[in-house]
């Protein structure tokens, strides 16, 4: 190998590691604007400023069918068929364009290619997800029964990571930083958080599925979520404060693994 060809190989390798080109199975390139450092939580919370829905942790609809923000039992999980696939019926509002619907399809295809979940157009099923263009990005936690609204506002929510984030809520997954063991992995900077918003960082009795804490989870808040002043972090990863959290490029390895664990794929 000549020196020039070796240098070219190293350059190409570095580029491939620095920028994930495609979310597996999504059919969509994940192009990240190097000048846009907005994390997923900031995008979601900014969009949700316009909603009058009562939301917990920024984007979770207050449960009406159960008392706690948990989804462990079979009652809130989507059912697996005899063929081993979990079929999840859904509808999409006619307010979305074909291009916008394609973005949703791309996000769903990643679940299809890596899990036993299948999102299928609703026919006459009683339980289904209704994807709507409401004010904000939000979802209920797990299957609630009947028509279940998942909001993806056209102006701020149609990003691959946000779509997968809200779908994951509808599957039964909570935010990563509310894990029952979060004190070992993140420091909550209470002094930088509006006291009225502090409940968003309380630990929950989560089912961690014997999986490690995942800073790269699509379900993790960004560092400045609910901070009272620009530039002050509400969450600090420990022991390495430079670890990235709040990524928006798509599901991580453990996001996918947990779906397969929870649904027995």
From TrEMBL:
<feature type="binding site">
    <location>
        <position position="175"/>
    </location>
    <ligand>
        <name>Zn(2+)</name>
    </ligand>
</feature>
<dbReference type="GO" id="GO:0004222">
    <property type="term" value="F:metalloendopeptidase activity"/>
</dbReference>
<keyword id="KW-0968">Cytoplasmic vesicle</keyword>
<feature type="binding site">
    <location>
        <position position="169"/>
    </location>
    <ligand>
        <name>Zn(2+)</name>
    </ligand>
</feature>
<keyword id="KW-0479">Metal-binding</keyword>
<protein>
    <recommendedName>
        <fullName>Metalloendopeptidase</fullName>
        <ecNumber>3.4.24.-</ecNumber>
    </recommendedName>
</protein>
<dbReference type="GO" id="GO:0006508">
    <property type="term" value="P:proteolysis"/>
</dbReference>
<feature type="domain" description="Peptidase M12A">
    <location>
        <begin position="67"/>
        <end position="265"/>
    </location>
</feature>
<dbReference type="GO" id="GO:0042588">
    <property type="term" value="C:zymogen granule"/>
</dbReference>
<keyword id="KW-0732">Signal</keyword>
<dbReference type="InterPro" id="IPR034039">
    <property type="entry name" value="ZnMP_hatching_enz"/>
</dbReference>
<dbReference type="Pfam" id="PF01400">
    <property type="entry name" value="Astacin"/>
</dbReference>
<keyword id="KW-0378">Hydrolase</keyword>
<feature type="signal peptide">
    <location>
        <begin position="1"/>
        <end position="18"/>
    </location>
</feature>
<keyword id="KW-0325">Glycoprotein</keyword>
<keyword id="KW-0862">Zinc</keyword>
<feature type="binding site">
    <location>
        <position position="165"/>
    </location>
    <ligand>
        <name>Zn(2+)</name>
    </ligand>
</feature>
<keyword id="KW-0645">Protease</keyword>
<dbReference type="InterPro" id="IPR001506">
    <property type="entry name" value="Peptidase_M12A"/>
</dbReference>
<keyword id="KW-0865">Zymogen</keyword>
<dbReference type="InterPro" id="IPR006026">
    <property type="entry name" value="Peptidase_Metallo"/>
</dbReference>
<keyword id="KW-0482">Metalloprotease</keyword>
<dbReference type="InterPro" id="IPR024079">
    <property type="entry name" value="MetalloPept_cat_dom_sf"/>
</dbReference>
<feature type="active site">
    <location>
        <position position="166"/>
    </location>
</feature>
<keyword id="KW-1015">Disulfide bond</keyword>
<dbReference type="GO" id="GO:0008270">
    <property type="term" value="F:zinc ion binding"/>
</dbReference>
């Amino acid at each position: 190998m000549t020196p020039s060809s070796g240098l070219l190989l190293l350059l190409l390798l570095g580029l491939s590691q620095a920028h994930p080109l495609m979310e597996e199975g999504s059919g969509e390139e994940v192009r990240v604007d190097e000048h846009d450092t907005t994390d997923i939580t900031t995008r979601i919370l900014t969009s949700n400023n316009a909603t009058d829905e009562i939301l917990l942790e920024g984007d979770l609809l207050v449960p009406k069918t159960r008392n706690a923000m948990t989804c462990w039992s079979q009652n809130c999980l989507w059912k697996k068929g005899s063929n081993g696939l979990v079929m999840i019926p859904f509808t999409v509002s006619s307010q979305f364009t074909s291009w916008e619907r394609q973005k949703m399809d791309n996000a769903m295809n990643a679940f299809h290619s890596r899990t036993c979940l299948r999102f299928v157009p609703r026919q006459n099923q009683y339980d289904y997800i209704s994807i709507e263009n409401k004010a904000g990005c939000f979802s209920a936690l797990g299957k609630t029964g009947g028509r279940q609204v998942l909001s993806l506002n056209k102006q701020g929510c149609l990003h691959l990571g946000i779509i997968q984030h809200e779908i994951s809520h509808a599957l039964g997954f909570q935010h990563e930083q509310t894990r029952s063991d979060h004190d070992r992995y993140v420091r909550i900077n209470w002094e930088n958080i509006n006291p009225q918003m502090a409940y968003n960082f309380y630990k929950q009795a989560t089912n961690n599925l014997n999986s490690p804490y995942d800073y790269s989870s699509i379900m993790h808040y960004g560092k400045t979520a609910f901070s009272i002043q620009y530039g002050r972090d509400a969450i600090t990863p420990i022991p390495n404060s430079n670890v990235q959290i709040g990524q928006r490029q798509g599901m991580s390895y453990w996001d996918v693994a947990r779906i397969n664990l929870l649904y027995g794929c």
